[in-house]
Write a structure and sequence with these properties.
Chain lengths: 339, 339
């Protein structure tokens, strides 16, 4: 099969890879209908994380082509959405709603779903089948559910976005934008998007943002305080992962408020005394996407949400290198790849 | 009046201070019945925080001797308990339950309650009167409610201690010990005290600890994991405030679990990637004691809890220097001072 390999920073190639096969009886093989490039794929692409001939990709939707002997909930032909972490969905951690920290988890990025096929470990616990084959125009939204919607949603839940709350969103990438969608769905009263790009501001408003703040850093914090009676937002979503964005998020939150952070932290250090003085809640990490998939599939197939709107460039898998370039240069918010 | 002044690290003196008087119409003056030395008073005493001729003390119970023209809920003669932060109890932050972050707060430590009298700002919002004059044997428990019980309680709430939960407590000082009491009252199933001192272990068990772990650092984390099926505790109370104790708390918590931290952080730095990888909740800071005072007064006057058991040394105010020495040398867990 064909698949994306990141040879080295900046060097994306699509080449022949060995077809995946069932290894464990709990595995399934899926033919990938659509996959995409994640903001987190840009870290190694930009040399901010070490990389050496790595298969890429951890977001996917597709059709089951083969199942292991112990797979019970899926049949060949099912259209499925899965999380970027595989999970058994039965251990104590999964049952508490943290499937991304399952005691038997595998990071799908190590498998590489920017490819024609993929082996999905713990298929019963990881994949959720849609009711029948979805309409073609729903594919982008279902693909978004695999990570970027789930991650934005988790951030909004972690930030306790809800009725009566003012939510600020740091980061106008796909995750931040879908954090806005999630905050809206969760009933937030006011949603402040922090963005200085006109196209992303427009998408933020499409998903439910009520206010736009263009300032960043201390000026951004001051503006949020100004908009919230000097107190700060109740709920702040951090969807970048840098020291500046984390500080901006923490300092934009009122005492007793909640920061939900999902940007993969790079060289972030939180000062204990500042956190003590802030009196805020901090929660985040790898989103337990699996928890939300049944609800996402319902909302998407009933056309109540359209998270697929974050994809502003679709390319054949063979053109993956151009997709990486477009995201790196911020010419695209989120790139879908079709094998 | 007489009051404690910390001239410099290690140099505690009791000397004449100016009698407090009403400054704002919302003030009250109280005659202090009992006050005490806080673990946090040891930071400047040990030279870990700068100090220069500072009045000391922020815990207190006493009798109202004078009220300002705008004080409405108190009368002269009331026996009152107050928090270590004054608060109006009406602002949006107070109303959300975070009175220790009130927009009009004053830190009582700047006033210094290790004295015969104290001026209490925002008396209506800060003080809660007991139903009548309390029995003398209840004074230590009511004094504990002023800070150390409230702080341990907030830590347990922040750690979401409750039914079905395993709670681990890092720190066997008075706050940690009362965190155990709080976890028990909140219905925790299992409470693991981390302590290597026989007398504190005994008090931990008295307050409700079901297990004792003597190991610290990595070994302590390993022991907590061993006791929790490899997963870590659901809820961890951090009641020390050092880098080691914070790491021990974070690493003892299962994914999705909660750390409640109340040790005033000193040179603590939290690595963003470690926090991301842990998937835990982190909440703490200055405890909103005021929120809990009515319930504390009820529990104490109905003799359902006895937080005053943490006081193992009572001295006249004049002997405050010996009280500081006893706590510094760990000869006493918590010292009560009676003016």
């Amino acid at each position: 099969m064909r698949g994306v390999i990141l040879y080295a920073p900046g060097d994306v190639r699509v080449e022949d890879r060995v077809d995946p096969r069932i290894v464990e009886p709990t595995d399934a093989i899926i033919k990938i209908t659509a996959t995409c490039i994640c903001g987190s794929d840009l870290w190694p692409y930009r040399g901010a994380e070490p990389v050496d001939h790595a298969p890429m990709g951890h977001e996917y939707v597709g059709v089951v082509t083969e199942i292991g002997a112990e797979v019970k909930t899926l049949v060949v032909g099912d259209f499925v959405v899965g999380s970027f972490w595989s999970s058994d969905n039965t251990c104590e951690i999964c049952q508490s709603g943290y499937q991304s920290y399952c005691v038997h988890r595998t990071l799908m990025g190590t498998i590489g779903t920017q490819a024609e096929y993929a082996r999905i470990p713990l298929a019963d616990g990881t994949l959720v089948a849609t009711p029948g084959q979805p309409d073609a125009d729903l594919i982008p939204s279902l693909l978004a559910a695999s990570d970027v919607l789930g991650t934005g949603w988790f951030a909004a839940v972690a930030a306790q976005a809800g009725p009566g709350k003012t939510v600020a969103v740091v980061g106008d990438g796909a995750v931040g934008l879908l954090g806005i969608l999630a905050a809206k769905e969760l009933g937030a009263e006011r949603i402040i998007a922090m963005s200085r790009h006109a196209d992303r501001q427009a998408l933020a408003r499409h998903f439910g943002a009520t206010d736009i703040v263009e300032e960043r850093g201390d000026a951004g914090v001051a503006r949020i305080k100004e908009l919230t009676g000097g107190l700060g937002a109740h709920s702040v979503i951090e969807a970048v992962g840098t020291q500046e964005s984390m500080q901006q998020a923490m300092r934009s939150t009122r005492p007793g408020g909640h920061v939900g952070f999902v940007g993969v932290s790079h060289a972030v250090s939180i000062d204990g005394l500042e956190l003590f003085g802030a009196g805020i809640h901090l929660h985040g990490g790898a989103a337990p996407v699996r928890q939300y998939l049944p609800e996402f599939i319902r909302l998407i197939t009933e056309r109540q949400i359209d998270p697929g709107a974050v994809f502003d460039l679709t390319l054949p898998l063979e053109d993956a290198a151009e997709g990486y370039r477009a995201m790196d240069e911020r010419r695209a918010t989120k790139v879908m790849l079709t094998p």
